[in-house]
Amino acid sequence: MNARLLHTMNLTPEVERIATALAAASETPGGSGYRLSDDEALTLMREAPVALLGTLAVARKRQISGDEVYYNRNIHIEPTNICVFRCRFCSYRRTAGDPDAWYHDLDAVERLAEARRGEPITEVHIVGGVHPNHDLDYYCEMIRRVRRALPHVAIKAYTAVELHYIISKAGISLVEGLRRLREAGMEAIPGGGAEIFAPEVRTRICPEKPTAEEWLATHEAAHGLGIATNCTILYGHVETYEHRIDHLHRLRELQDRTRGFDAFIPLKYRNRHNDLSSLGEVSLPEDMRMMALSRLYLDNIPHIKAYWPMLGIGATELALSFGADDIDGTIDDTTKIYSMAGAEDQRPVLSTERMEALARSAGFTPVERDTFYRPVERRG
Ligand code: V47
Ligand code: SF4
Predict the structure, then answer these.
(1) Separation of alpha carbons 231 and 254, rounded Å
(2) Is 212 in the pocket of ligand 1 (CB under 6 A)?
(3) Which of 349 and 183 is assigned the larger pLDDT?
(4) Which among 124, 132, 227, 99 is positioned nearest to 175, based on CA atoms?
(5) Would the pLDDT of 281 be above 70?
(6) How much distance in Å is there from the Cα of 46 to the middle of ligand 1?
(7) pTM for the predicted model, two decimal places
(8) Ligand 2 residue neighbourhood (C-beta within 6 Å)
(9) Model confidence pLDDT, tens digit, residues 227-245
(10) 253: burial class by Cβ within 10 Å (0-12, 13-18, 19+)?
């Protein structure tokens, strides 16, 4: 991006200075880029035109992951929506006995996995409510059963919230609990449960959940064992820009120490059927602003995921012009978290052809990946 073009954008002097520094640093392929301070990130969030953020974020994305946009073939298994917690933004949780509570016991979970035998999926993502009656052995056994049904498929399982709860209940250390789950076959951990770390927001939206420190300690322990994990933010409710940047700051700081996060997923708060419904939802430009800032600020996290069941397909395509390089997977109508919160796709399914077309129309090369971002080679 040349200086003349920046001048035509009528930027504030500070935005122009930061944009010039970012643009210059992203010119070297594979370079380390320009590390934004928290104040600079805040200035960009408040004052930069969204189109400028997109241009800068795509330049940085190309520096980090070239022309590739990743997707995978995956399914979710959601064993239950019965949960001991009552997060105010959650449209999904129920109490045992509620008419629309569901619970799949171990045999049922195994059958759900067996039904996928022979399909070309490479990942099963297991996540659900925090059920009051289960212990660590139960969670390990669930993973063993899914592994037995689908031996060649990677298991990405349980948010830090579920993990922290069951491992604390077992009275053992996080490292020991995670080691047992890994022995059972858990290979990666999804990024859910982070929400917003700042305690003044957490106490308003999910007061009973593990704290920021507990969430971060769970991921740090996983990274220490070589277990890959993702991280998220839930934005667009009661938080401020300062809270969002504080959240990104804590993630970047942990990643500097461990290098264990593969991907960051900005999750847009969807407002149907939950206790925060009166808040409304943020706009599409605001989603793109968040996507781009995530790419620019988190200079040490390799991938930024636009999670299509939550954003919708149109916004996901747009997100590729705002720094995202991953669109998650085929899903095949196996998750209810977002459809219950009002997302457009009530039965989320996306074919690989559609995902590839989406990446191409945004100007990138689609690559099918496995859970660890290795390209998947398919014959024929
Ligand atoms: O932690 C719950 C979010 C998360 C709502 O790691 C909501 O690859 C918006 O983390 N509006 C769980 N969001 C899902 C998750 C995830 C999803 C896809 C891929 C990966 C990955 C991780 O869903 C929760 C919470 O932040 N959530 N309710 C809602 N009303
Ligand atoms: Fe339970 Fe997760 Fe919903 Fe919170 S977001 S109430 S932990 S299912």
Answers:
(1) 11
(2) no
(3) 183
(4) 227
(5) yes
(6) 25
(7) 0.97
(8) 83, 85-87, 90, 92-93, 129-130, 161, 206
(9) 999 999 999 999 999 999 9
(10) exposed
